[in-house]
């Protein structure tokens, strides 16, 4: 479904990606993990054709996309949708939620908006309100509903829970897992936290300083990491359930 072949991305002062190659198959839950400066967000932009590689090729459903002009990317815009880290930054504060959710359709479709709000656990009346009237977790639910509006086959989630409280983080991860299964989506999930990736993905690509240093089934990589950097990520990754239990114990 997605093919990344020897991709480089150079900026004036940074070589953000260095010869990265991987494939994402239909129905896969593919995690990309790495720290700040690893190239994760650059890769998201390339997969969504919001940026172009300096070298290499990117394919989507067998069609090369890295060299296509914007006017020929309509199929990608419909089939691949992105959920970003900061929901408030991706939601127009002047628009009602029903219009935000309908926007990718190119028209206001109240029935579709209501259906999607229900799918992400929000009541129908939420459509009449504005983004600032919701909590961070609720705004991320709205972002997910908006991403699902055009019925994509691929959902790319770029650090979708990193700005949320721990307990809310678990709710959003559970919601994403449910929706991926319900709508038979392919998921590309990007995070700095390997424990979060392990919770929702079946395959993981570990990135460091623009390079892909490890790739494989997530449980296998977690159990027997080959690269020293992967071992560092595992040592640094908190256990989500343990953290939630610890916070509950404070109350």
What does this structure look like?
The protein is of the alpha/beta class. It has one domain: Rossmann fold, CATH 3.40.50. The chain has helices spanning 40-47, 74-79, 87-90, 97-102, 110-119, 136-148, 166-182, 194-200, 218-223, 228-236, 240-250; strands spanning 2-10, 15-24, 29-33, 55-60, 63-64, 80-83, 154-158, 186-191, 203-208, 211-217. The strands form 2 sheets. A 6-stranded mixed sheet has the order 6-7-8-3-9-10, sandwiched between helices. A 4-stranded antiparallel sheet has the order 2-1-4-5, covered by helices on one side. Helix 6 packs parallel to helix 7. The chain is globular. The mean pLDDT is 92. Keywords: ATP-binding, Nucleotide-binding, Transport. Belongs to the ABC transporter superfamily. This is ABC transporter ATP-binding protein. Residues 2-234 form the ABC transporter domain. InterPro entries: AAA+_ATPase, ABC_transp_ATP-bind, ABC_transporter-like_ATP-bd, ABC_transporter-like_CS, Oligopep_ABC_C, P-loop_NTPase.
Quickly list its features.
39% helix; globular; transport; alpha/beta; Rossmann fold; four-stranded antiparallel β-sheet; single chain; 251 residues; six-stranded mixed β-sheet
Quick structural summary:
It contains eleven helices and ten strands. The protein has helices spanning 40-47, 74-79, 87-90, 97-102, 110-119, 136-148, 166-182, 194-200, 218-223, 228-236, 240-250; strands spanning 2-10, 15-24, 29-33, 55-60, 63-64, 80-83, 154-158, 186-191, 203-208, 211-217.
């Amino acid at each position: 479904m997605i093919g990344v072949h020897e991709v480089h991305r150079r900026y004036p002062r940074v070589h953000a990606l260095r010869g990265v190659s991987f494939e994402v198959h239909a129905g896969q839950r593919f995690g990309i993990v790495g720290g700040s400066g690893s190239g994760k967000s650059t890769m998201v932009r390339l997969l969504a054709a919001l940026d172009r590689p300096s070298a290499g090729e990117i394919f989507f459903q067998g069609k090369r996309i890295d060299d296509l002009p914007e006017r020929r990317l309509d199929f990608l815009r419909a089939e691949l949708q992105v959920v970003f880290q900061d929901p408030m930054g991706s939601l127009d504060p002047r628009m009602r939620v029903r219009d935000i959710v309908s926007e990718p359709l190119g028209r206001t479709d109240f029935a579709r908006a209501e259906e999607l709000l229900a799918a992400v656990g929000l009541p129908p009346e939420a459509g009449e309100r504005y983004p600032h009237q919701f909590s961070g977790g609720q705004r991320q639910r709205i972002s997910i509903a908006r991403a699902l509006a055009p019925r994509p086959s691929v959902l790319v989630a770029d650090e979708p829970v990193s700005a949320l409280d721990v307990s809310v983080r678990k709710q959003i991860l559970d919601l994403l897992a449910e929706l991926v299964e319900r709508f038979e989506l392919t998921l590309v999930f990007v995070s700095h936290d390997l424990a979060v990736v392990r919770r929702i993905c079946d395959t993981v690509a570990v990135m460091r300083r623009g390079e892909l240093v490890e790739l494989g089934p997530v449980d296998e990589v977690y159990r027997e990491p080959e690269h020293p950097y992967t071992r560092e990520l595992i040592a640094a990754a908190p256990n989500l359930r343990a953290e939630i239990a610890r916070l509950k114990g404070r109350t």
